[in-house]
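Why this split exists: single-chain examples teach little about how molecules sit against one another. For that reason, every record in the complexes split bundles all components of an assembly together and asks for one structure covering all of them. Below is a record exactly as it appears in the raw files.
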Amino acid sequence: MERERKMKKYMMSAAACALLALASQSASAQTAMATPGKAVSMVLLPKFLGILPFDQAHKGAEEAAAELKNPTALQFLGPTPQNSVAGQIEIVTNAATQGIQALMVSDNAGDQLAPAAKAAQAKGAKVVTWDSPIPSANGEDVFVAQVDFNDIGKVMADMALGLAGADGGKFAVLSASPDASNQNAWIAAMKIALKDAKYSKISLVDVVYGNDESEKSYTQAQALVDKYPDLKVIMAPTTVGIVAAAKAMQDEKLCDKVKVSGLGLPSEMLAYSKNGCAPQFALWSFVDLGYLAYYTSYMLATDQMKAADGVKFKAGRMGEYTITKDPTRPDTKGLRILMGPFTIYTKDNVEAAAK
Amino acid sequence: MSLPALLKRWEALLFLVLIVVVAANIAESRYFLSVGNFVNMFQLSIEKCIVALTMTLVIIGGDIDLSVASVMGMAACVMAYLFHLGAPLPLAILAALGAGILAGLNNAFWIAYVGLPSLAVTLAGLIGYRGIARILIEDRAVGGFPLWFNTLGQQALVGPLTLAILIFVVLFIVFAFVLHGSAFGRLVYVVGSNVQAARYSGVRVGLVKTAVFVGSSAVAALAGILYAARLGSVRGDTADGFELDIITTVLLGGVSIFGGKGNLVGVGLSLLVILSLRNGMGLADITGNTQNYVIGGLLILSVLIPNMSQDLRNKWKGREK
């Protein structure tokens, strides 16, 4: 009897030791794994509704939701492009009222979204930005970045240099809205890249904004070629802007003189890529971005990981990621998960990607 | 007033609509009935609510002011511009209010003394004042205001109420008194129903219109500053397009676009209907274009119903004879 009790004691303490060891191990550099099946109310909030990349991100998020067997349905809510700032603030505020546990936002309101996002955090929600962060990082737990913002700047500078031809020349940027923090960061990164002597033959003459509205982007592209008759390249780091600019150049029959480039969706750019109006552009997968944002938010909201520098986690089919300090926002306490990679599309690979 | 006569009143109809909307919201969302949600509901549109008060006076006076949203944007941009030039923020705010008053005087000069239609003058203002806003701030977002300014715009001041909500309540009471309890208010109605008759009976029409338009722009400038404080930053397109929301709210409140008819109670009810409808749809996860369809549909009905019922009544009378 006595021996048996002692034996039991030993075994229990041994088991406890083993458990402790396991726990301490997972607290250090262990990769956090997602436990599926937890009910988490989540909202995916794009800049606005009605354009393809955000629908693709939604598709990716739904894929992750199915994989993680979250019994609470994902809400895909967004404002109209004309009402994007006020609309995003309204949706974040209402989500906080509803006690939503995780908000995934592509911020189109700059720091104007910060007060509402902070209020949501105060009510217990995790705020994960994707595609476009809150510049000050106030009200944001972590930002899921598509590719390194400095890389985007370099890639855009390289494409501009290549398309301007041997003599170089003038080029201009057609961006989204003046408050879109991702586009602003990319343009800033491109300006830094341009300082390199390698790019001395090309000069950035203007940055204009089409607000991600087709019509406004179209007229802004026309205005650019009117203002700079010797313009060589229009660089549009937005999927709406690049299509509008390519169409404008095609309609004006200027495709031989002015090349359009930037960030575009293969399916939308197929024709312009083939007819030479936009011979080269780049992008990453928005489906993957939505998927990764969902995994991140799910694991944060269920306390399966913390938003802190150095935390590693496994995001389903996409593999392992690490949360780090955001080097593109050095003055803030912003954290970042870097997705990558980049694809450059030309007439040779655009068709396969468009399917 | 007898019950049927009371029911025929526009405000009674609005009140019924309000009850339906509120009941639907309560049934639809358990989050609707909470102090926090009510504060949010007002706070999210509070600047438009404030400007709707002065717009009521303008429209009752037989005019329209399309320039209010541009004045909001201009005032916010003047403030942000001066602040970033190094002016102390209180001074920049005063200058922004001053810019609002100047805009109002400009509108009033062309309308009241040159005699141009307010539609044309304030349409020019809509473009011109927005132009000034864009020239000052260009395509940037300007923020970095002192903490006290952002706190006033974003945090509750008294109980759960923010400064902007308190200002709205005070202005509502003030304008209710001005419009319905003062000699000036009666003059606004007189000018709005028949400007010729008003002139012949010795009303100083120019002075009344000047007061109304300066008031409209000054309050719009104040609302623009409150909007900047709520969002914490200013852009050239701040408050862009707000004028249509504001005017439609006033019209839904039963104020006649032809002037001389309407009251603040109706406008207050109309604000409540639109805000609770938006809020309820937001809580039911209906956003974007669907919201616009529903509110647009409501506004079309609000124009159709009174006109059609008048038509029907006239036909009925014709048959009786």
